From TrEMBL, chain A:
Name of the protein in its database record: Large ribosomal subunit protein uL13m
Localization per record: Mitochondrion
Entry keyword Chloroplast: no
Keywords associated with the record: Mitochondrion, Ribonucleoprotein, Ribosomal protein
GO BP terms in the entry: negative regulation of translation; translation
Organism expressing this protein natively: Sparus aurata
One of the record's GO cellular component terms: mitochondrial large ribosomal subunit
CDD domains recorded: Ribosomal_L13 (cd00392)
Gene symbol of the encoding locus: MRPL13
SUPFAM superfamilies named among the record's database cross-references: Ribosomal protein L13
Family the entry assigns: Belongs to the universal ribosomal protein uL13 family.
Lineage: Eukaryota, Metazoa, Chordata, Craniata, Vertebrata
From TrEMBL, chain B:
Alphabetical GO biological process terms: mitochondrial translation
Protein's UniProt name: Large ribosomal subunit protein mL66
Keywords: Mitochondrion, Ribonucleoprotein, Ribosomal protein, Transit peptide
GO MF annotations, alphabetized: small ribosomal subunit rRNA binding; structural constituent of ribosome
Keyword Chloroplast: no
Organism (species): Sparus aurata
Length: 225, 208
């Protein structure tokens, strides 16, 4: 039983659509062994961590363009500043590696802990590492669903918040000069939802009924394809 | 859409009218503006079926309202803005795509405020959320139509992102980020959504 307490376990973390900082905190905690009650800095109690899918890492905000990784080769004129997007294109593993490196304690154990961290840009793992894996850690960030991933029933179950109202060009039928909606519709106007309105605008009169029908339009039709 | 089918019913109702002995003149008198009915009376305009009945001398043209299952009533009907009607004021985010998709066109743009009926602040918040959702790739079917045969010059880098406030090409890298007491922070999210309901203990950080 006590052998299992001191065993070095292998964790796997899927970094798909996750912020690299949160992945790195989880990695550093487990590499140091701080998740164990038997932790001590001197006792080598860190575990192995395998990070997969680092190619699909997601930064919040505009960090892909704003975050800058700087390095100096030591030679004069050797100061390089690279944005996160450029660095990721050059090496997909580098962002996670640098993040974890910066979160580990600044002592000589850091290098050994980095040797226990295994980063893979995609899903494929070599067989010997896959054989060693013990636990998969849950992802820190909830991945939001795309609109295409919702089923049609869920889309229909969501209530419509607003209904469009329609401006119609209507023809008024005269019977001896008196405008009376009841001559045309036997039922009350409420059913037909035609409300007589005071003259607000002047419009040119259209003579033929066909012209009237052609001028039917709604504002909505421009927007709905 | 309901508007289209309702239009069609109005069209057919007018097409069926017989301009004969009873009504000599057909004139366009005025534009009848159908106002947005107060929600207390009727929530939505029903789809009507035109029915023509003929007696000996009288012709009855009637629009009978079809039995369409009623839309659920909003919890706060006496409000002007649809979001206030459904009590969603500070509760939505860029991830609520089902809500945001009701206010966008098919090519991703927002519908005008006069049509949706939103109040100004909510319209702006929804605009911001829709922008963030587009940049996060949550609305894949609402992309603008590219002209046919359009080949992009260089392949665009497919980078995952979320809560992006600024547009991708407009942002410059922070070469000198400063020391701990005066860092140039990277903005995340948007201050317009600062009043959103926060269910976690940690507050919403807008500067990373």
């Amino acid at each position: 039983m006590q052998w299992a307490t001191f065993a070095r376990s292998w964790f796997v973390i899927d970094a798909r659509m996750q912020p690299p900082g949160k992945i790195a905190t989880m990695c550093s905690v487990r590499l140091q062994g701080k998740h164990k009650p038997i932790y001590h800095a001197m006792s080598d109690c860190g575990d192995h961590v395998v990070v997969i899918n680092t190619k699909q890492i997601a930064f919040s905000g505009n960090k892909w363009e704003q975050k800058v990784y700087s390095s100096h080769s030591g030679y004069p004129g050797g100061f390089k500043q690279v944005t996160a997007a450029q660095l990721h294109h050059k090496d997909p593993k580098a962002i996670v590696k640098l993040a974890v490196y910066g979160m580990l304690p600044r002592n000589l154990h850091r290098r050994t802990m980095m040797q226990r961290l295994h980063i893979f840009a995609d899903d494929e793992l070599p067989e010997d590492i896959q054989a060693n894996l013990t636990e998969e850690l849950p992802q820190p960030r909830e991945i939001p669903r795309k609109l295409s991933e919702y089923t049609q029933e869920e889309i229909d179950a969501f209530p419509r918040l607003w209904t469009p109202y329609v401006q119609t060009v209507c023809c008024q039928i005269h019977t001896g000069g008196s405008i009376n909606a009841d001559n045309v519709f036997t039922h009350s106007a409420a059913h037909a939802h035609v409300i007589e309105y005071k003259h607000k605008h002047r419009w040119e009169e259209m003579n033929a009924a066909s012209n009237v029908l052609n001028h039917f339009y709604t504002k909505i039709s421009d927007y709905i394809l | 859409m309901a508007a289209r089918s309702m239009l069609r019913s109005v069209w057919t109702s007018f097409a069926g009218l017989k301009v004969g002995a009873t009504c000599p003149m057909v004139k366009v008198q005025q534009r009848i503006i159908v106002p947005q009915l107060p929600a207390l009376t009727v929530q939505s305009r029903g789809i009507r079926q035109v029915v023509e009945k003929k007696d000996n001398k009288t012709t009855t043209i009637e629009g009978q309202i079809l039995d369409v299952p009623a839309a659920p009533q909003p919890p706060n009907p006496t409000a002007k803005c649809p979001i206030y009607r459904w009590n969603l004021q500070h509760k939505y985010n860029y991830t609520d795509v089902l809500l945001l998709s009701q206010f966008i066109r098919s090519d991703g743009g927002l519908l005008p405020r006069k049509i949706t009926g939103l109040c100004l602040e909510e319209h702006r918040k929804i605009a911001i959320c829709v922008q963030m959702a587009h940049r996060a790739g949550l609305l894949p079917d609402h992309k603008p139509k590219l002209p046919e045969g359009h080949v992009p010059k260089r392949p665009k880098p497919q980078l995952n992102r979320y809560l992006t406030r600024w547009s991708i090409d407009s942002v410059k890298p922070i070469y000198k980020s400063g020391l701990k007491w005066s860092k140039r922070r990277m903005p995340v999210g948007d201050p317009a959504l600062k009043d959103n309901v926060c269910y976690s203990v940690k507050p919403l950080y807008l500067k990373h």
